[in-house]
Amino acid sequence: MCWLVVLITLNATKGKTKRMVATRPADDYRLYALDRVLDMALTDKHFKMKKSFDIEEYFEGCYGIIANKNIPIERIVLKAWKPHCYYLESLPLHHSQRIIAQDDESITFELNVRPTFDFYQALLAQTDMAEVLEPESVRQEMKRFTENMLYHYKK
């Protein structure tokens, strides 16, 4: 079971205290990390979700909670080596993940996701046990991340 709380921001703040109120300016749905909410209060204001709002469509192709429709869904090909490939086989990164090739040393997976920041974090968590093969744009972004990491460790 998955619980989802949808809050919509109100762009008005009074004084030094920032407040988030459930309202819908310009139909801008936003997600908030509940583990970072320090205080919450019920109000007498009511909010009605648009009947046309489809949560499945909103999160289509998302790895996690970053729902950026400006980032297209892409076919990601990821190769993982033994024994880590068995971990990714038993605990897929995404529900679209499937095996497309397998040999004595590795398994190659295909996923269809939006390559957002949280997806890159998940890829980086695989450390040196997996490699993005396609698309080249995601491969280059992973290369940029790892080159930046290497720069910090060479200091």
UniProtKB/TrEMBL annotation:
Occurrences of domain WCX (ranges): 75-149
UniProt-recorded name of the protein: WCX domain-containing protein
InterPro entries assigned to the protein according to its UniProt record, in alphabetical order: CBASS_pafABC_assoc_protein, WCX_dom
